[in-house]
Amino acid sequence: EDQVTQSPEALRLQEGESSSLNCSYTVSGLRGLFWYRQDPGKGPEFLFTLYSAGEEKEKERLKATLTKKESFLHITAPKPEDSATYLCAVQAPFTGNQFYFGTGTSLTVIP
Amino acid sequence: KAGVTQTPRYLIKTRGQQVTLSCSPISGHRSVSWYQQTPGQGLQFLFEYFSETQRNKGNFPGRFSGRQFSNSRSEMNVSTLELGDSALYLCASSLDGYNQPQHFGDGTRLSIL
Description:
The complex is a heterodimer.
Chain A: E1 4-7, E2 10-14, E3 19-25, E4 32-38, E5 45-50, E6 56-59, E7 62-66, E8 70-75, E9 84-91, E10 99-101, E11 105-110
Parallel strand pairs in A: 2-11
Antiparallel strand pairs in A: 1-3, 3-8, 4-5, 4-9, 6-7, 7-8, 9-10, 9-11
Chain B: E1 5-7, E2 10-13, E3 19-24, E4 31-38, E5 42-50, E6 53-57, E7 64-68, E8 74-78, E9 87-94, E10 103-104, E11 108-112
Parallel strand pairs in B: 2-11
Antiparallel strand pairs in B: 1-3, 3-8, 4-5, 4-9, 5-6, 7-8, 9-10, 9-11
């Protein structure tokens, strides 16, 4: 059973066209939800941690929000350099606090 | 502050061989986790080490093993390599593994011929 599901799998945006990425999870007792950015040939780069429903975090053009069953990564007026794969992960206590990753959303921003 | 360092960056092996990958965590981080990343499966958790002890293990066969040294550096070993082991192997570290983000290295790309 998938613990974390990300949608869409791929997203193409025009530069300046805002959108949102979704991460839904089924684990209970969430310890934290983490967003990462991964560029080709690189390891994931940490972006945000969210711990409780209603929490929001912002960094430049990115804003992450959390509800009881999903998280959104909002991208406002994206630029080509925002092109990357965005991964979310959840940490839950019932399996020794391991991280479960979604398969990611591949974002392409066209100039 | 230096990030997570993984060596080597690239490896080419043949079926049946074994391989050892190395990971140096961020200074002060005591938890080290290993992941396998493939296009179809995404990041799959292999195991986590904390204070030289394996604290958590994913669903991988016993051919995959690891260890952690007293300075928190970690190694991962894969024996009797199979074609399906071709992947990007990522190491991540955090302070103690609880409620904190993991910070990743750039991985070792392992190709099996």
